[in-house]
């Protein structure tokens, strides 16, 4: 585990994001939870200001933070403020929780690539917030779509990679 890294992102309901990321190359583990809010020990019923997010444990020899963000921008709509699908409110905001200056710079660069691609009809409103603490969600929310395969999700792959297209340009 010492060679693995963690990434923290939020892009709407955490169930759908977790389900898609869990099978990505280089992703070792996923956990859903709450980030960036006002209270300690948030719960599904009480998480003011927190985003529903995911903690990704990944092997940097198999994938990069940049590739994780590329996929992140392909599976949710980063152009809607506090909304994904039918879900509305700050819990469903698009946010990257950066852990250091390097992650912040990579995040800014990927957002520029996404915006410059013109694939979305508007620019990304994804916010960058410093990572503070990740609060795991309750057990019934972990691996939710594995337990409930027909459960609600608004996440799906919308485009091919942004990074490969940018390299060709």
From TrEMBL:
List of catalytic residues: 13
Keywords: Oxidoreductase
Gene Ontology molecular-function annotations: peptide-methionine (S)-S-oxide reductase activity
Top-rank EC class of the record's enzyme: oxidoreductase
Xref: InterPro entries: Met_Sox_Rdtase_MsrA_dom, Met_Sox_Rdtase_MsrA_sf
Keyword Methyltransferase: no
Enzyme Commission code: 1.8.4.11
Function according to Swiss-Prot or TrEMBL: Has an important function as a repair enzyme for proteins that have been inactivated by oxidation. Catalyzes the reversible oxidation-reduction of methionine sulfoxide in proteins to methionine.
Family according to the record: Belongs to the MsrA Met sulfoxide reductase family.
Protein name as annotated: Peptide methionine sulfoxide reductase MsrA
Origin species: Maribacter chungangensis
């Amino acid at each position: 585990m010492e060679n693995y890294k963690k990434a923290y992102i939020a892009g709407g309901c955490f169930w759908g994001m977790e389900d898609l990321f869990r099978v990505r190359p280089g992703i070792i583990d996923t956990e859903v939870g709450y980030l960036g809010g006002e209270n300690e020990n948030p719960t599904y019923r009480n998480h003011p200001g927190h985003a529903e997010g995911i903690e990704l444990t990944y092997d940097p020899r198999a994938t990069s933070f940049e590739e994780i963000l590329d996929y992140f921008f392909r599976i949710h709509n980063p152009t809607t403020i506090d909304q994904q699908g039918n879900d509305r409110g700050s819990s469903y905001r698009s946010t990257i929780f950066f852990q250091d200056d390097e992650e912040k710079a990579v995040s800014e660069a990927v957002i520029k690539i996404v915006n410059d691609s013109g694939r979305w009809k508007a620019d990304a409103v994804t916010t960058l917030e410093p990572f503070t603490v990740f609060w795991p969600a309750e057990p019934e929310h972990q691996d939710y779509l594995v337990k409930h395969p027909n459960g609600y999700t608004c996440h799906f792959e919308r485009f091919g990679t942004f990074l490969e297209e940018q390299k060709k340009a």
